[in-house]
Design a protein that fits this description.
The structure is a single chain. The protein has a single domain, classed as Transferase(Phosphotransferase), domain 1, CATH 1.10.510. The chain contains 4 helices and 9 strands. The strands form 4 sheets. It has a 3-stranded mixed beta sheet. A two-stranded antiparallel sheet has the order 1-4. A two-stranded antiparallel sheet has the order 2-3. A hairpin with a 4-residue loop joins strand 5 and strand 6. The protein is globular, with a radius of gyration of 15 Å. The N and C termini lie far apart (33 Å). Its main location: membrane. Its EC number is 2.7.11.1. It is found in: Cell membrane.
Length: 143
């Protein structure tokens, strides 16, 4: 994408000044993408590894989620918001993980929302959460 990733834009010395309107546009774009993935897609999915380096920006700062290598389609009851439980292996930096994921290994729609909160923190603060290590962790997908 023309402007690289959100991570690239937030790195010291690499970034353009992002005004609040642009930051809001990026945040809303990511929120809409996650909402689509979780609730509107024909086959709902848990993304599993949302971080600023996986959010690409076009020349108008439209956000696109990339790298669906860890995304997992789930059997999801739209009325009860419950998924069937499945164990998967996921790569990713643990400091982006929701506390319940770190404690129990459970990956859920809620853990994607927690990751979105980490992205919001980065957008608001104008700084990235450092991620220089990747860990393999077995997780259980559940509600």
């Amino acid at each position: 994408m023309a402007l690289g990733s959100l991570y690239d834009q937030l790195q010291a010395g690499q970034r353009q000044a992002l005004d609040w309107g642009t930051r809001m546009k990026i945040a809303c774009g990511v929120a809409k993408a996650l909402s689509y993935l979780h609730y509107e897609a024909t086959n709902p999915a848990i993304y599993g590894d949302l971080k600023s380096s996986n959010i690409l920006l076009d020349n108008e700062f439209n956000a696109k989620i990339s790298d669906f290598g860890t995304a997992k389609s789930v059997n999801f009851n739209r009325e009860s918001h419950v998924t069937n439980t499945t164990v998967i292996r996921v790569l990713g930096p643990p400091h982006y993980w929701a506390p319940e994921r770190a404690a129990s290994g459970e990956l859920s729609l809620k853990s994607d929302v927690y990751n979105f909160g980490m992205i919001l923190l980065e957008i608001i603060s104008g700084d990235v959460v450092p991620f220089n290590k990747t860990y393999v962790h077995e997780v259980t997908i559940s509600n």
